[in-house]
Structure formats: C-alpha cells, structure tokens
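hey m, so remember when u said the tokens were messed up on ur end? i reran from scratch. heres the input so u can diff it against urs
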Amino acid sequence: MSASEIAAAKQLIESHGLSFEPGFDNLVGIYEQGELVAVGARAGNVLKMLAVEAEYQGGSLLGEIVTLLVSRGYDAGLDSLFVYTKPEYAGSFQALNFKLLATQAKVALLEYGNGLKKWLAAQSALIKPGCNGAVVMNCNPFTLGHRYLVETAAQQVDNLYLFVVREERSVFPFAVRMRLVKEGVRDIGNVIVLDTGHYLISSATFPTYFLKKDDPVARIQMELDVTLFASRIAPFFGIVRRFVGSEPLCQMTRAYNDTLRELLPAYGIALVEIERKEAISEVISASRVRDLLAHQQLKQLQNHVPASTLAFLGSDEAAPIRRQLEGPPA
C-alpha cells in the first residue's frame, strides 16, 4: 500500500474505535467507488485490524479480506493463522472456518487451519498413563533453580511434561534453550521435554488494537494462556498438576501464578508452588545468571547453573551471547 492508502486504512480502523498498530507483513483493503470500505492486516501468523464500514457489514467483505490475508499467510509458508477478537464477534470468524481455541471476558482466540490438532497429534507418542504434571519454562538460560523445580516436581508425579517456550524473545535462542534443558534433566527418567509450539500464547503476537486503553492487557493474556492450556493441552496429556516456582522477584510472574491458582481448579488441575532454590543466600534466577555473565563473573556461575549450562556459557559458541549481554564497548 502507498502512504495515502495506509493513511486511509488508519482512518477507517480508528473510525471503528480501534487502534492502528504499525508493524505488519500485509495490509489489504477493498474499495467501492474509490472509497476504502474494508481493511485488514497480517503480522506474522496473526490477523488483526479488521474493519468494515457499517453499511457493508453483514455482507461478504469480511470474508474477502480474511481470505486474502490467509492466502498471503500461506504464501509466506504458514500452516495456520490466528485472530484475537471480542467474544461477540467469534461467531463471524467461525463462519469463515476459524476454530475457537480459548475465550475470556474480553477476548476470544481463534485459529484458521488444523494447527493445534496437528501439533497435538505430533506429540501422541509422548502420552503416558498415570498421575501427570507439567512445568512451563523459558529457561533463559537453564539454571540450578530450574533443575531444582523440575527434580522436585518429578518426584510428585508419574510423568512430568516440561514445556519449553518456543517464542524467540530471549537472549538465548530457542534451540540453545531447548538443548540446555534436555542436557540438564537427562538423568531424571520421568521427565518428558517438548516445546510449546504456538499454543502457549506469545506476548510478541498478542494484539491490543481492539482493547480499551484501561483494559488489563497482561491479565487478559494470562487468562487466555491458562484457559488454552487447561482446556486443550492438559487433557490431551492427562495433566492434573501444574508446577511453578515461588516468585519473590518478578511481579508479572507472581500475577501469572495467581491466575493459574484461580483458573486451574475449574479444570481439575491443581497448582503446586515450589519454593525457589537459593545459592549463597540469594535466589537463583536466570536474570541473575545473565547479570553475572554480563559482568564476566564466570566463577560465580557454578553456584547458579548445572555443569552442562556452565560448559556452554564458557564456550566459543556462547561468545555472541556474552558480547550481547556485555553491551557495546565504553
């Protein structure tokens, strides 16, 4: 789109009480007699900023915009796409072959394609009978604190599913985080390591264009995340316990734990909070490890990370990460 077309799209979107969010892969529109009457955008695997002029609503324009954006997404190599919308509009997208994944008071999440079904089917060999639990971790990087949580949780269930967050917003790339987790828990026989796919909601893709400025965005996102896990993922794996570490440092993580505590029981899942492990009178955390690495205090790291992580942190492979953490030269 040209600058004038983008300006027209912005005006149409905002005229519907929505916010225009720059940063998209595709922005498409439909014109009638020279006037823009429908618009929508795709950012990665998320469709957003869908708006249709009032006099054209109820017709085919929404479907045409969505079909075009889905086609562009497939051309980009995506096999499923998502849309976040107000719950009252979920039916309009279901009529366009979207499937409802999760909903809460203000937001519904729907998917086009069979991504969740395919992702679960790909994990079917990992299904094991018994009293099963789950831990969801980012592990940026894997620490002795993570190890302690996993080890303690594994003692309380028959099988422990350890989900590693796939989202690439960490200093340590997903492939590295996944490898360090697998190396760090290899000796714990009942731990099954897998990644979250697209199905623990990514903060990178969660759009806010249709929310009011005073809406509690973080809380909404947490509720969707927990609902999707509890209603779709946990039953597939027979998960009846979700384990978390106590959180003395991060207010956001504490709020997420509170959301788990509030919502999980309705799905027959117990939340088990495990006290954080300490090292020399300080809580072990990935942020502390990154800080030590940034200040080149490699000797102190041995009190915070397992041998496999320590070996990686001192390796040539980790040199770019160390430089990134250290920042530009003074």
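this time it looks ok to me. The mean pLDDT is 91. if urs says something different then somethings off w ur setup not the seq
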